[in-house]
Amino acid sequence: MNLKRIWLVLFFLAAAFSPVRPLLAKEPPAKLLVFFSPACHVCAMVKEEVMPEVEKEFGAFVRIEYHDITRAEEYKFLLALNEKYGRGPKVSVPLFYMNGRFLEGQRIKSDYRQFIRDGLNAPEPGKEGLPQIDLFGRFRAFKPAAIVGAGLIDGINPCAFTVIIFFISFLALQGYRKKELTVIGLTFILAVFLTYLLLGVGLFNFFYRLRSFWLVSWAVNIAVGIMAIVLGVLSVFDFIRIKKTGASDGAFLQLPHAVKNRIHSVIGMHYRKTNIEEAQKPHLSRLILSALVTGFLVSLLEAICTGQVYLPTITFILKIAPLKIEAWGYLALYNLMFIAPLFVIFLFALWGATSEDFARFMRKHIGLIKILMAVLFFSLGAFLLWRFNV
Question: How many domains in the chain?
Answer without folding.
Answer: 2
